[in-house]
Design a protein that fits this description.
Radius of gyration: 19 Å
Mean pLDDT: 87
Oligomer: single chain
Number of strands: 11
Number of helices: 12
Length: 230
């Protein structure tokens, strides 16, 4: 009986164990903005010693939740991939269900307006992006996933967005916990945010993870026909 039960296990308990410590949760949250950070900075953000941080980071990398980028003598940690980011997004949304209204009231306005969610755009501006793309039929929704249309591919070329569709779904819907409606996640959404940052349409805000909408960004959303709610 024990052997049968073990064979039916999927192994997700290893993931939940890796995420169950407050210090490791703090580290993963710090990396959720899409940056790669060194162990020392993650230790400071999590409020633990460098030695303790090393053990925590080893546990997260062994669970394949984080990956390591070696640059010379330095090691930088980041979220392993989009699939892991999606897992973290879902956990954040589930955890926020009970106190969404309370959390949203205490949230700095810049974070509600425009912020990064891993490597894509979230907040009011993220929802406006989704609405604009759907409204112009540049993307088509299929339940919790979406795909790019031929018009969408032409729009990508016109906006110089570096994206090449593959076999996998181009994007998925990610619940936005402040707006309570989905924004777009996945490779296509990542490519859009990358382009907006490269062209200085969006710029970093002094509030961590928040983004400032610049004049070029307003022009981008005007071309898309997506009204900006602020």
């Amino acid at each position: 009986m024990v052997a049968v039960e073990r064979s039916a296990q999927s192994g997700f308990s290893r993931l939940t164990e890796a995420l169950s410590d407050p210090a490791r949760e703090a580290m993963v949250s710090a990396l959720f903005g899409g940056k790669a950070l060194p162990a020392g900075e993650l230790a400071s953000l999590a409020g633990v010693s460098p030695q303790s941080a090393s053990a925590h980071l080893q546990k997260l990398t062994e669970a394949r939740l984080l990956s390591v980028l070696q640059q010379g003598r330095f090691r930088y940690y980041r979220i392993a991939d989009d699939e892991v980011a999606g897992l973290i997004e879902n956990l954040v949304n589930v955890a926020a269900r009970g106190n969404q209204a309370e959390r949203a009231r205490g949230l700095p306005t810049p974070l509600r307006q425009s912020r990064t969610c891993y490597c894509h755009l979230a907040g009011q501006l993220g929802v406006a992006l989704r609405d604009g793309l759907v409204g112009r039929e540049l993307i088509v929704l299929h339940g919790r996933q979406a795909s790019l249309t031929e018009q969408g591919l032409a729009w990508c070329r016109a906006e110089a967005i570096d994206f090449k569709p593959g076999r996998d779904p181009h994007m998925r819907l990610c619940n936005d916990w402040t707006e309570r409606v989905p924004h777009l996640a996945g490779p296509f959404a990542n490519a859009i945010l990358k382009r907006l940052i490269e062209t200085h349409a969006l710029a970093p805000h002094r509030v961590p993870r928040a983004l400032r909408l610049m004049p070029k960004g307003r022009a981008f959303f005007e071309r898309l026909g997506a009204p900006i709610p602020f």
